[in-house]
Amino acid sequence: ECGVRVPKFMELETLNFNDLKSRLHLPFVLKPKGAFGSKDVSIIRNEQEFIIASQDISNLNDFQVEEFIEGKLYHVDSIYKNGRAIFQVCSEYSYPN
C-alpha cells in the first residue's frame, strides 16, 4: 500500500536446501521467530552456509525463511488482537545492521 517492498516469507517446513532455494531463490534469510534484532539471523547464499546455520535447529516451528531483497531496511511493528492486526506502522531503519 505504501510502496514498501515486503519479502516473500514462509514457515520453515523443511531443512531441504533445494526446496527452499527453488521457492525463495538465493540468497534467502533464515531467522528465528522469537528472537530480537539480528540474533541468530543468517543470510544463506549457498548450501554450505545453510548447513552451518541449520545445525542447531531442533524445532522447525521456531524458525521462518524469507527472500532477501536489496535496498533500504524497514521494520514493521504490529499489534494483534484476536488474531487480527489492529495497528501497523512501517519505519525505515536509521542505522541498519
What is shown here, in short?
By secondary structure, this protein is of the alpha+beta class. It is built from two helices and six strands; from the N terminus they run βαββαβββ. The strands form two sheets. Strands 1-4-2-3 form a four-stranded antiparallel β-sheet, covered by helices on one side. The protein has a two-stranded antiparallel ribbon with strand order 5-6.
* N- and C-termini, Cα separation: 25 Å
- Order of helical and strand elements: EHEEHEEE
Please outline the major beta sheet. Answer: 4 strands, antiparallel
* Uncertain spans: none
Average pLDDT taken over every residue:
88
Strand order of the largest sheet: 1-4-2-3
Shape: globular
Round the Cα radius of gyration to an integer and report it: 14 Å
Counting helices, strands and paired strands, the structural category is alpha+beta
Share of residues in strands = 25-35%
Helical fraction equals: 10-25%
Explain what the structure shows.
It is a single chain. The chain has helices at 17-24, 47-54, and strands at residues 9-11, 28-32, 42-44, 63-67, 74-81, 84-92. The strands form 2 sheets. It has a 4-stranded antiparallel sheet with strand order 1-4-2-3, covered by helices on one side. Strands 5-6 form a two-stranded antiparallel ribbon. The model has no long low-confidence stretch (mean pLDDT 88). With 97 residues, the chain is an alpha+beta fold. Helices cover 16% and strands 34% of the residues.
